[in-house]
Amino acid sequence: MNRKLIIRVLGAILCIEAIAMIPALAVSFVHRDGDSMALGVSVLLAGIIGVCLFFGVKTDKSSHLRLKEGFIIVALGWFLLSLFGALPFMLSGILPRFEDAFFEAVSGFTTTGASVVTDFDHFPRGVMLWRATTHWIGGMGVLVLTLALLPKLTGRTAHLVKAESPGPSLSKLVPKTGETAKILYSIYGVLTAAEFIALVLLGLSPYDAVIHAMATAGTGGFSNYGASIAAFQSVPVEMTVSLFMFLFGINFALYFKFIMGDHIKAFYRDEEFRWYFFIVVLSVVSISLLNLGYYHGDYLTSLRYTVFTVCSTISTTGFVVTDYSLWPVTSQMIILLIMLIGSCAGSTAGGMKVIRISMVFKMSRRTIRAAGHPQKVEVVRIDRKAVDETTLSQVAQFALMYIAVWLVGAFLLSFDGKYDLLTHLTASLTCVSNVGPGLGAVGPVYNFAGYGIFSKLVSSLLMLFGRLELLPMFIMFTRSAWHQY
Amino acid sequence: MRIIVIGAGKVGYALAEHLIDEEHDVTVIDRNEDVISRCSSSLDVLCLKGNGANAKILLESGVEKADLVIAATENDETNMLACLISKRLGAPYTICRIRDPEFNESQMLLQNELGIDVAINPERATALEISRLLRYPFAGSIESFAKGQVEMVEFRASEKDPFIGIPVKKLSEDIPSMPKVLYAMAERNNQVMIPTGDFVFMPGDRVFVSGDMLKITEYFRFLGRNRQKVRSVMILGGGRISYYLSRFIVPMGIHVTLFEMNQEKARALSELLPKVDVIWGDGTDEDLIEEQGLSQMDAFISLSNRDEENLISGLHASRCGVPKVIVKNSRLTHLDILSDLGLDSVISPQFITTSTILRYVRARGNRYGTKIERLYRLVDGKAEAMEFIAVKGEPYIGIPLKDLVIRKGTLVAVIVRQNKVIVPFGNDHIEAGDHVVIISCESGVSDLNEVVYR
């Protein structure tokens, strides 16, 4: 195993985390909410340890990263990132217990947005900004950021991006991984800035706008208000946030194609986008009609809340404008389904990803057809190109494992005897899919504060499993991963 | 540069690997899913699955913005088509691998009509390399620099050689009669070293000396090595390399005995090569080749399709006392083992093709800012030789080399000034416009002022 290289990359990750904390530190100096000390100590700790690891170890330029090591770096890196990311919460005394702080940090980096915070009124603003920053970094991925900033750390960096980026296959934009990472982050940055400007123009304070723009960009869902977006009670704000949640659920490669001269056809020619768009429209239409009764026949009100909730759920953001657990049961069921599906591969969103759902759908259709014609040869096509059978079988296995992780998670959560089955099932799903709110006791107007230590740690793990798309986490638990060779 | 490599076989893969090291943006196109997934997981390149002669795939790879297209698939026709289409789509420069001798006949016409800027024939290039080795049978390998004015010859030091056991800096004092050449590199236990003044050669080292042709010849005459001259050669296998090789060496007055198992092929060869003794039979049959006079041969060249067969035959020939044995190896790695067994000249067509193509890419790259005129890969890629042109106004100009700092692991091997070759010693200096050949054990040198500075 290439221990030295792994340690160096982990060091680089910590350095980047320290740098990412600096804006929060600056804000804490301005507002003097008493969190400067906590953030300062966190920056120093992460920075010093990061620099020591990065510069303390010498690696060969020629040393290559093996595929397995790529997975290990990603899994360990995210774990470390969350550990150090929890420091500001603990040290500032907002979440003094380790499991709470760790849960909050994991929830931030995995862009879940599930929270254990109950008191939003006395939340120091510096740490609050850090809470939103974790979303922004976690959305596109910290290793992608590392590669964008530190080129030529090692050969074969594609492994790292592959292990961190969501979706069944990695779509590089340009030949070099480092360049691809830079382009992705530029697109990400521009879109975030666009949302920030839009929100400021709609009358939000710059501080609120930054927090909500970063939380939308990472499709996270942390708000600095307990009531989430509902705190603003403004239709334009809701629609803007909805639009951006929808946009951040699209594969970023399409934005690149859009800029490179494909214009609007980059989107409608992409099969995954068409599925995504179709699912959103279908969900919005059906839920808004189902909710007519609940909203006393006021279709516009129904549409307003439905659009926001659907965009928030399918993009796995988890912002809340209304308590959808009061909606008709069928509407709630649709919400759960799109929670499972999630958005496009190569976006910042979670879930199983639309492309996988469409492949599973086409595979099932093929199996059913083949039942009558066993000799028939049929390929599964995406974007009119045949998908090879290895990818298909990987996708099918992923779907099964995903559901297994969800159910096992729910089983483990059920030891926490306080709540009913619906709570445990949706809590597990919302963690694996990185959404945030579930139903029942973890519903839109509640959060995870009521769970015990064990359940919080299980949920944290579930979020990491979901964000890293299972494999890196599973590999960590195999013996061969730690085998010296 | 933006480079598209079509076909990621042995040559394509090795090319892509080197091009990335040289910081180019590489896109690889191959039809085989497995090859593509191997490339995308181990190389930092953009991979596309599809036929390289398909305009749609080429457009997808951004051919219109590419600086260079290299077609290196197994199939000549695909390569030619790919180059033709790429050129029409706007690629400014194309390099094409063409191996069929039939196409070779009409090469100029094809090149002009198809828009191929460089056509590489791996078999022909390999045959050329072998013929050079036959000219200097004592050498394991020969490289020529600066348009052939300077040569670097590799040979294995033996106990009888006079320079054994004397530090390099004392050689000219202790053996004044020995012609002055530059000891450019030494390989010992698979480690390539640049000899410093205190370096002492040991028997068994692979020694690389460089100098102009005259000096080199004198040097080997002094060592008593040029007495062997190749007059008769036995070749195993009647493939394309054998055909080209026979065409090259028969006019040099060398007698060729060629073994081919396939009767029709043997007939065809005998038709094409009238002066060659073509034997229809299995060249690995010891009795048969002994009957044809193996032990009297000056050289034995094994060029069959099977690497293992080549190696065994080569070992056998060298045990029978054939002074020069050359074997072809296309697939096997860890060739270092072979030199322990006494096989110094192992030829790999893939390696030669890759080096040749890289040389063209380098020359092309000059326009885009790299200062290297030409690049040579030495000792299985463990070292590199680079040709630079010294630029006016650089800090190293006009200063004796002994007063300059020279980067570790590198050596100023040769200076060519107005067609005069200077083997540089401490008092020599570099002038503007000089061609300077640098030898380096590590890659990553891209400018002369990274090697010599004050």
Please explain how this structure is put together.
The complex is a heterodimer of chains A (485) and B (454). Helices cover 64% and strands 1% of the residues of chain A. By secondary structure, chain A is mainly α. Chain A starts with a helix and ends in a 9-residue tail after the last helix. Chain B is an alpha/beta fold and 454 residues long. The longest helix of chain B has 17 residues, at 349-365. The model of chain B has no long low-confidence stretch (mean pLDDT 83). Classes of the chains: A mainly alpha (485), B alpha/beta (454).
Q: Please, how many helices of chain B?
A: 15
Biggest chain-to-chain interface with counts: A-B, 17 and 14 residues
The CATH architecture assignment of the largest domain in chain B turns out to be 3-Layer(aba) Sandwich
Overall morphology of chain B: globular
Mean pLDDT of chain A: 88
| Main sheet record of chain B | 6 strands, parallel
Report the radius of gyration of chain A as a whole number of Å.
22 Å
Order of helices and strands of chain A: HHHHHHHHHHHHHHHHEEHHHH
Under CATH, the topology of the largest domain in chain B can be stated as Rossmann fold
Q: Shape of chain A, please?
A: globular
End-to-end C-alpha gap of chain A? 6 Å
Q: What is the tally of helical segments of chain A?
A: 20
Multimeric state: heterodimer
Instruction: Give the CA-CA distance, first to last residue of chain B.
Output: 31 Å
What are the SSEs and their pairings?
The complex is a heterodimer of chains A (485) and B (454).
Chain A: H1 3-31, H2 36-56, H3 67-91, H4 98-109, H5 125-140, H6 142-149, H7 158-164, H8 177-201, H9 206-217, H10 235-248, H11 252-262, H12 265-268, H13 271-290, H14 299-314, H15 329-341, H16 354-372, E1 381-382, E2 385-386, H17 389-413, H18 421-432, H19 453-467, H20 471-476
Antiparallel strand pairs in A: 1-2
Helix pairs in contact in A: 1-2, 1-3, 1-5, 1-6, 2-3, 3-4, 3-7, 4-5, 4-19, 5-9, 6-8, 8-9, 8-10, 8-11, 9-10, 10-14, 13-14, 13-15, 14-15, 16-17, 17-18, 17-19, 18-19
Chain B: E1 2-6, H1 10-21, E2 25-30, H2 33-42, E3 46-49, H3 55-60, E4 68-71, H4 76-89, E5 94-97, H5 101-105, H6 107-114, E6 118-120, H7 122-135, E7 141-145, E8 150-156, H8 171-174, E9 182-188, E10 191-193, E11 206-212, H9 213-222, E12 232-236, H10 240-249, E13 255-260, H11 263-272, E14 277-280, H12 286-291, E15 299-302, H13 307-319, E16 324-328, H14 336-340, E17 345-347, H15 349-365, E18 372-378, E19 383-389, E20 405-406, E21 410-417, E22 420-422, E23 435-440, E24 452-453
Parallel strand pairs in B: 1-2, 1-4, 2-3, 4-5, 5-6, 12-13, 12-15, 13-14, 15-16, 16-17
Antiparallel strand pairs in B: 7-8, 8-11, 9-10, 9-11, 18-19, 19-23, 20-24, 21-22, 21-23
Helix pairs in contact in B: 1-15, 7-10, 7-15
